[in-house]
């Protein structure tokens, strides 16, 4: 090949550099299994993270699970004193989390290993984390957004499929994962509906660098939620999972308990009206979010008739409450 063509090809695509897609989550973080115990609002805690790290995976906690900066700092210290492996935090980076910039400052100050961004632009997080070598993984639900965050410098994508618990995406990760793998250069971590080793294998075969798993770990011994919540995960099945906009303003997967049936899954007429009017939209989002969070908090930890329990269709594979380590071992069997 003429010299000119060789150098042009190299300059255009950096062909000589190893393709980052080849990096699995295990290689990226230096862990045994490419499994991330997903960040879950109200659920994730330091005990779950410590057990996940000791079991050969990794884990993340939503920064929102801590009310104060000192509590967040204390959580990082506690994990670091108990386990020696990388872990991260999740930042909701839109107006529903007015504290995200302070939380980011704490996390960059403590140089956590990675940050997962969700529900907003990761631009500022990436800018502040890059110089510190803190990795930034971004939740995405479609290719257009994935391309945007890749261009901003994200280290990996978390493909949130329609099977996911929490704020699920519109497309199954059986379609989303291969699409992102084909069109993006950075690693893709699959999230949603992963509850058995064959699901992990399927996602890796589709090109995923690893998996992010939430729902099945809510029923772990280490999870701090009430026994009523854990028993509901055993009792209800995927046919009982519905999407509600009442709690956060966006589609959220909840168990269709009698209380959820009673209050309905859609916002009121006034909420719909305000959503259509730009001036009120952000204000409304904050109100719905704050009100919904209070309801979820009460339901997660106390005996109450207001049973709003967040979970995804993966509850089909929850049959008992077990130590996190046992759930992780089962998920990674054969790896
Ligand atoms: C109870 C619950 C709370 C969640 N809270 C958050 C959150 O605060 N931030 C976030 O980015 N994702 C959140 N998620 C989504 C998870 O991080 C992850 O994407 C999802 O659980 C994967 O799907 P799975 O539940 O089928 O494993 C939550 C999921 C659940 C089930």
What is the number of helices?
Answer: 15
Helix proportion range: 40-55%
Q: Tell me what portion of residues adopts beta-strand conformation.
A: 5-15%
So what's the CATH class of the largest domain? Alpha Beta
Largest sheet report: 8 strands, parallel, barrel
Bound molecules: flavin mononucleotide
CATH topology description of the largest domain:
TIM Barrel
Q: Which oligomeric state applies?
A: single chain
Shape: globular
CATH superfamily of the largest domain: Aldolase class I
Any key phrases for this structure?
335 residues, TIM Barrel, two-stranded antiparallel sheet, 10 strands, 8-stranded parallel barrel, binds flavin mononucleotide, alpha/beta, disordered N terminus
How would you characterize this protein structure?
This protein has 335 residues and is an alpha/beta fold. It folds into two domains: 228 residues, TIM Barrel; 88 residues, no CATH class. It is 43% helix and 13% strand. It is built from 15 helices and ten strands. It has an eight-stranded parallel barrel, surrounded by six helices. Strands 9-10 form a two-stranded antiparallel ribbon. Helix 3 packs parallel to helix 4. The N and C termini lie far apart (43 Å). The N terminus is likely disordered. It binds flavin mononucleotide (FMN). Flavin mononucleotide (FMN) binds next to strand 4, strand 8 and helix 10.
